[in-house]
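Intended use. Records like the one below are meant for learning the mapping from a protein sequence to its folded structure. Do not use them to infer anything beyond what is encoded.
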Amino acid sequence: MVFADLFFIYFFMPLCLLFYFFAGSIKARNAVLLAFSLIFYAWGEPVWVLMLIAYSYLNYKTGMLIGRARKKHAPRAAHRALMLAVIVDIGVLGIFKYSGFFVENLNALFGSSIPVPNIRLPIGISFYTFQTLSYSIDCYRGKVKVQRSFGKFLLYVSMFPQLVAGPIVRYSTIAAEIDRRKTKLKDVSEGFTRIIYGIGKKVILANSLSKVVNGCFGSREGGYAAVGTVSALGAFFGAAAVALWYYFDFSGYSDIAIGLGRIFGFHFDENFKHPYLCDSITDFWRRWHISLSSWFRDYVYIPLGGNRRGLPRQCLNIMIVWALTGFWHGASWNFMLWGIYFGVLLLIEKLFLLEQLKKLPKAVRHLYALFMVTIGWGIFHFDDLGALRLFFRALVCANGNPFSSVITRSILFSNLFLLIAAVLLSLPLRNQIRRFAMRSQNTYLVCKCLSIVFNVWVLIVSSMMLLNNTNNPFLYFRF
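Structure written out for the chain above:
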C-alpha cells in the first residue's frame, strides 16, 4: 500500500496529466482519462474492472430504456426500466457487501449451518453504486438527459479521482463538463494545492492519529485488545482521536479527488465543510460527508414522503434513512447502531431540542454537539460488539478501571502537539489566511510564497513518512 501511494503520486498521476494535456480535443482527453481510470482500478484486482465495465453497461442500457420510454410517453415502461436498474444495483451491492452478514445472522438466529460467502469487496462499490442509482433516478425524473455514449457514461462511473473514495458525484454535476470543459492555470494551481493538502491530511495527520487510537484501544486486527483495560478518560480521549482520524482520512481523500477533478476541468461539490464547528447534530450533518447525506435526502427521504405526510410518518422516514445510512457504511451491527444513534439525536432535535439549544450560548451548543459526535464515533469504530460494550463500560467507569491512568496520560502528553495541530487544522484556517492575503498586493505575494513553501514541505514530509512507515490504513476498503 505504501509503495502504491508513492507510485500514484510520483508516476501514475504525472503520467496521466502528461498524456491528458498533450491530447488536443476533448474527445481525446476523455479517452485518456477513461484509459487511466480503468488501469487505476485494475491495478489492485484486474477481475473487478471487468465487473465495473459490465455493471456500467447494464446501467447505461437501463438509462437508454428509460429515455426511450419517456420519449414515447410510456410511464409504465420507464418505471419498469428504473426498477430493473434499482434491482441490479442494489442486488450487486447486496451480494458483494452484505451476503456474508445476512448468512451469519441467519445461522446465529436459527442455528443453521449455511456456508457463509467469503466474497472480497470490490473497492469503491458503495460509491459507484450510488452514482449509477442517482443517474437512473434522475433520468426517470427528467432531471438529466440520457447519456447516449457508453464511453462517456463509463468515464462518469469509473473516473479515478473519486472512484474508490468519493465524494459521490451525481451525473448532473458533471454532465456538461464531460462534453465541454477548460482547464485554466488557476485550476491547475488550486488543484495541486488541494491535492497536496489532502495528501498531508491523510499521511501526516490521519495515519499518525490512527496510532493514537490503537494505543488507546488496540488495533482492529488485534481485536481491540486494549479496550478492556482503558480508563474512562482514555476511552473518551480515544474516541476523540477517532473523530479526528476519520475526519482527516475521509476529507483528505475528498480533497485529493476534488483537486484532481479541478485539474481535469471537473468541478466536484464540496464534501466536508469543517464539521467540528457544528453547534448541533443537525448542523454536523450539513457539514459531514455532504454528498452522502444529500443523496439519502434526495433519493430516499423525500421519495418516502419527507415531512409531507404528518409528524409520525416524518419520524419514521428519518429513522429509515439513518438506519440505511449506517448500513451503507458496512455489513456490521455497529454501523446500524451508529446510524440509529444519529437518527434518534436528529429526531430529538427536530421535535424539541433544537429550539431549546438556540437559547443557549454558542459555546455550550458547540460542546454538546462535539460530545455527542465523539460518542458516535466510538460506536462507529468498534465493529466487534463485545469491544463496543467494553468501550461504553469504560466511559462510565463501570469496568473497574480508574477515571485516568498512567498509560492514558502518557499517550496524551506524548501526542499533545499532534492533537493540537489536528484540532487547529480542522478549523477554517485556510479561509482566514486567504482573506488576510487579499488585503493588499504585498500580503498576497508573501502568503503565496509561504503557501508554496508549505506545500513543498507537506509533500516532502508525506513522502518520507510513506517511505519510513508501514502504517497507512485505507479506511475506504471497509466501505
